[in-house]
UniProtKB/TrEMBL annotation:
Gene: pmbA
Molecular function in Gene Ontology: metallopeptidase activity
Record flagged with keyword RNA-binding: no
Name the UniProt record assigns to this protein: Metalloprotease PmbA
Domain Metalloprotease TldD/E C-terminal: start-end pairs: 244-452
Protein species of origin: Pseudomarimonas arenosa
Keywords: Hydrolase, Metalloprotease, Protease
Length: 453
């Protein structure tokens, strides 16, 4: 095990990670003994606590503890994979048998194989994402009850609740391959959420709020989460529809990251080599307005997806995806890179902490700048075609007139084509939503088709 990793751990953790490292090396040695030209193994252990309350009563308390081993072997260009949740020697031996048998019966794939040995990570850093907190079920229930109670007590129009939840978890993962690479990651995660219902009968409106991160003590207070959920539900009472037309649209930050997600999906290697992307042949072309950049920051401290290496052991690094509006690269694993005749971008398993450049204006300032249009705070449905870029989703939010929010609106459909929508970004706000690995503020779009009454 790397000394750089070992020095970050307590003696008991060193012993534990050392045992898993020894197990991984034994599995790789067994694969070589059976004739595999290459092999890779992943080991993971996760534990967690989840509680749900509703109307002050406990609905569920769930403890989880999972572990598993996944294995991929290569016989030349033939590949086979198998996995097991049982780490006793007999089960692991059967898993090796299965992976080898599958590989021998698969068709050769010229793109199969490990990532290149020279790309393996050699430096391992602590990203400050390991903060175990011995929260027990009673304490978690108390937090959930506090969140729900704070929301229900805010206003008599809060008539019901969909409940509040608290989740706490920690995980350890190890990856090793026959290049001699071995690395591990560990992280903790916590979240508190609350969903409340305002109004009665057909006039009921539901909304929620949550916070999440690697440190429980840095989350928004349970009381504030409950009150925010209540305020959001109250603000949606007595919604109206809108006449169909083209309007400026402002995506609230928590909705805006979905737009960036669609762009990233279209830029992924798997979509591109299947020719299922509206960004085919777009390298070096504008995909966003000038001045907007998307940069991957895998070494961000306390990042949601910080990592020294990707799922193939390839060293990660700060890497622009879009610079000044121009698409600089695709999002590639070693396999998708070979399929496209390119090089891996250390993205096996996805992106690591994407930062979207933003302006200096708050959401309120963007509302004033928009003047007249729709603020979107909820999206529904999956009406996005990554092949063509066609976009159509149900939505709800608020009508804005004279730079001020006038009333809630719902039963809307917003539509367009992602190529056009993304190029019509007017400004991105400074109200960055930090609860996701995609850091982005509210996004103001010049105009979209809004179908209402």
């Amino acid at each position: 095990m790397s000394q750089q990793i070992a020095k970050k751990l307590s003696n008991s953790e060193v012993d534990h990670s050392g045992r898993l490292a020894e197990l991984a090396e034994k599995v790789l040695a067994e694969c070589r003994r059976r004739g595999a030209s290459q092999a890779e193994v992943g080991l993971n252990e996760e534990s967690g606590l989840s509680v749900n309350v509703r109307l002050g009563d406990v609905e569920t308390i769930e403890y989880t503890r999972d572990r598993g081993l996944s294995l991929t072997v290569y016989f030349g260009k033939q590949r086979g994979s198998a996995s097991t949740a049982d780490l006793d020697p007999e089960s692991i031996d059967i898993t090796v048998d299965q992976a080898c048998a599958i590989a021998r019966y698969t068709q050769p794939d010229d793109c199969a194989g490990l990532a290149e040995a020279e790309l393996m990570a050699t430096e391992f850093r602590d990203f400050d994402v390991w903060h175990p907190n011995a929260i027990d079920a009673d304490a978690a229930v108390a937090l959930a009850v506090e969140a729900e109670s704070a929301g229900r007590e805010l206003d008599p129009r809060i008539k019901n609740s969909d409940g509040a939840s608290v989740n706490a978890g920690q995980g350890f993962s190890l990856y090793a391959n026959s290049h001699g690479f071995l690395g591990h990651e560990r992280a903790t995660s916590y979240s508190v959420s609350c969903s409340l219902i305002a109004g009665e009968g057909e006039g009921m409106q539901r909304d929620y709020w949550y916070d999440g991160g690697c440190r429980l003590d840095l989350l928004q207070s349970a009381r504030d989460i409950g009150r925010t959920a209540a305020e959001r539900a109250l603000a949606r009472l007595q919604p109206r529809s809108l006449p169909t037309g083209r309007y400026p649209v402002l995506f609230a930050a928590e909705m805006a990251r979905s737009l960036i997600g669609h762009l990233c999906s279209a830029a992924s290697g798997s979509a591109l080599y299947r020719q299922a992307s509206f960004l085919l042949d777009h390298l070096g072309q504008p995909v966003l307005p000038a001045g907007i950049s998307l940069i991957e920051r895998p070494h961000k401290m306390r990042g949601h997806r910080s990592a020294a290496f990707d799922n193939e052991g390839v060293a990660t690094y700060d890497n622009p995806l879009v610079e000044d509006g121009v698409l600089q690269r695709y999002i590639l694993s070693s396999y998708s890179a070979r399929k496209l005749g390119l090089k891996t971008t250390a993205n096996a398993g996805g992106l690591h902490n994407l930062e979207v450049s933003c302006g200096a204006k708050s959401r309120e300032e963007l509302v004033r700048e928009m003047g007249r249009g729709v603020l979107i705070t909820e999206l529904m449905g999956q009406g996005v075609n990554t092949v063509t870029g066609d976009y159509s989703r149900g939505a709800a939010g608020f009508w804005v007139e004279n730079g001020e929010i006038q009333y809630p609106v719902d039963e809307l459909t917003i539509a367009g084509n992602l190529k056009s929508i993304l190029m019509q970004i007017v400004e991105i706000g400074a109200d960055i939503d930090t609860r996701s690995s995609t850091s982005v503020g509210s996004i103001l779009i010049e105009s979209m088709t809004v179908a209402g009454s």
